Amino acid sequence: MAVFSFGKSRSLMWSFCLVVILIVLAATAAIAATFITNQTGGDPAPLSPGWQFWATSDTVIGEAVCIEVHPVDDAGNYVRTQCSFDNTGSPPANWRCDVFTGGIPAAFEDSIVEYQFHIANFGTNCLTNAYLFTGFNWSFQMPLAVTLASFAAEAQADRVLVTWETASELGNRGFNLYRSDDAAGPLTLLAYLPSQAPGSTQGAAYRYEDLAAQPGQTLWYTLESISISGATTLYGPVSATVQAPTAVTLTGVSASPTAGAAGLPWLWAVAGAGVALGLSRLRQRR
Questions:
Q1: Residue 132, pLDDT above cutoff 80
Q2: With 60 as the cut, is the pLDDT of residue 250 above it?
Q3: In the chain, what are the domains?
Q4: For residues 257-261, average pLDDT
Q5: The predicted structure's pLDDT at residue 256
Q6: What is the mean predicted confidence (pLDDT) over 36-62?
């Protein structure tokens, strides 16, 4: 009669599980990612805010593609971001890398940015078991937070109209508008206007009416853009002079009769003759 041993059965079960785990680990190690291909295709696509990159890799479960970016002249100021598995992009891309979605750091604005890809353990902020670095074989020009298309001040009857237009506002938070009595300052803050197109590549139009402008006064206006990172850029100044109202003075005023008024004596004469003729006929009847 066979005797069943629960302890022996459990030991065999654990041994079997260990063998399976070892086989899976060996297979995983054998088929770990062997390549990463950049599928960005030129400059990365702008986000609101941030940038989007694409890559292809033969990753396995537990691995993730990561991207590392830094200014070309400041390799120590790097940022690593874990990409997201996403095969909805243009084939054969299967990893989407969204960088700076919380805002573009000031050190990266208006600079040449280098980037590379590598593999790391999934969910470890791209730091654990990092390998298969591609090298910084790609770069792109990070544009200004704001590209200003125009900035002008126009004097009107009782105010100054200040207008400006942007071509893009990829990393813009808003604008400060300053006024001064001289081109050299000092500057007085008039208003803060939030960005109308944050993260946009299309830009927007702005206007501000300075109702405190006095007639005959020349005023100077300076515009300051504020990026999401807090970096600022000044534009201008531009100026406008409010014209003083023109005074009208009447001198040597005289009146002359109109054609109708000049004819009134003749009317009185005719009327008088008519009355006299009527009275004469009335007496003759008596």
A1: yes
A2: no
A3: 29-141 (2.60.40), 147-241 (2.60.40.10)
A4: 44
A5: 41
A6: 89
